[in-house]
Amino acid sequence: MPSNIYKTRPHTLSNAQVPPRDHRGPRPLTVLFSLLVLIASIHFAITLHNTTFTTPPKTCANLIRSTDYTKYVQLQPKTQQMGAIQYSPQVTGGMPSALVQVTGTDAQQTLDIYLYGCTMQKQTPTISLLFKQQGLPQGTVSISSANTLVVGQIDQAISPQQLSTIEPMQQNIYSEYSWQKGTLVQTSFASLYPVTSRAEAEALQEQENNGQHLPWNDPLATAQQMAKDLFQWTSSDPQDAVIDNNGKVAHVQLNHPDTNMQVTVTLSRILQQNTSGLWFVIGAQTAAITLDPSSLPALVTSPIVLKGTVGMASGTLTVNLFDHTLSPLQIPTTTPLTADAQGAFAGSIAYNNNAPHQPGLLLIEEVPPAGSTVTGQLLLTHAILG
Fold first, then answer.
1. At a CB cut-off of 8 Å and minimum separation 6, what does 170 contact?
2. Is there a contact between 341 and 306 (Cβ–Cβ < 8 Å)?
3. Burial of residue 161 (number of CB atoms within 10 Å: 0-12, 13-18, 19+)
4. Which of 77, 126, 130, 345 has its CA 20 to 30 A from that of 107?
5. Distance between CA atoms of 264 and 98, rounded to whole angstroms?
6. What is the arithmetic mean of pLDDT over 291-296?
7. Which residues contact 211 (CB under 8 A, 6 or more apart)?
8. Contact indicator for 176, 187 with CB cutoff of 8 Å
9. Where residue 337 falls among pLDDT bands split at 50, 70, 90?
């Protein structure tokens, strides 16, 4: 008997009847776009974090290097622009510091100079102003090989007549500052002649090194020329001679023509102690004269009160002051210094100074008359003229 249970064949469809597949997964372009958005979001988050939550510097060195100094110097946008910023610990005795220059766009091309240091306050580094000079006409600033700060500006008091008689660098007034007991102090450069500033001396030495033959490479010739330029000696004595010379320091004896005066001149190769090094006068005086150190403080002002001693009471001494160009300063009323019976002298000298804080020279001398047996007196030394 036949079974009522039928076996069903599998149902198949033709290719034409197969329905399209349903792609429910993400499309490739969508994935790529999403990835780019994710990367951009991460970058923005990192940037925002670095901008907003940067850890402040914990050391003075890091603070000095990372500080935006435009926030401190208060630029005048229309007339000033930020100049060079130099990391300068060598100027401040190894303490982190920055030398900041602000240049002017005015006709005088003025320069403002700022030296910033750092102090620790409650274990937090804080910017502090150590030094500033503003409004320097055609100003310059540099760090010397001696780790001092050398500041220059054009001397606006030089007359047209003087311009034809001085060297180009002498048109500038140079002031030198050294780090002493936590502050910058103006100091005198060792040279009295042929220049009074380190900047000028370095320029002369560079000229010599570049092949220009200068007269200052011989100590005797340098001393004799100084006597003509500063002491107004009309000629050199044949008996002038080098007493000693060890290659670094030399002593020269100068004899005043027709008088009984012998001046010992000390010279040094200050900048370069080899056969190419130039000689600079660092001292000149006769044997018997002394000047009390209180007469010449770090910065002298008019009138200068002078006191000292000479070997014997031989008469009166005259005083001359020279500015940074080695030109005599005007002394309105000249009052000679008179020595008493014990050889002590005292007196005050007033002077006119058109360029305060310039390096200068003080010359005290007594030149006996020709043929006299009296021993003349002379002393040449530094003075920063206030």
1. 195, 200, 324, 325, 326
2. no
3. exposed
4. 130
5. 44
6. 91
7. none
8. yes
9. confident
pLDDT, mean of residues 355-361: 93
Check if the beta carbon of residue 114 is closer than 8 Å to that of residue 102. Answer: yes
What residue type is 141 in one-letter code? V
Report the distance separating Cα 379 and Cα 264, nearest Å.
Answer: 10
**Amino acid present at 305:** V
Token reading at 16: 């034409």
- Token look-up 């006299």 returns 372
CB 226 within 8 A of CB 286: no
- pLDDT score, position 92: 98
134 backbone dihedrals φ, ψ, rounded to 5°:
-125, 150
Residues 6+ apart with CB under 8 A from 174: 150, 151, 152, 197, 198, 199, 200, 324, 359
Closest CA to 365 of 353, 354, 374: 374
The half-sphere exposure of 185 on its side-chain side, counting CA atoms within 13 A, is: 11
By DSSP bridging, strand 344-349 and strand 249-255 are unpaired
Q: pLDDT digits over 371-380, tens only?
A: 777 788 999 9
Measured CA distances, 115 to 35, 88, 126, 151, 286 (Å): 50, 9, 14, 12, 42
How far is Cα 305 from Cα 9, in angstroms, rounded to an integer? 134
> Which residues make Cβ contacts (< 8 Å) with residue 219, sequence separation at least 6?
242, 245, 250, 252, 267, 279
Residue type, 309: T
Amino acid at position 193, single letter: Y
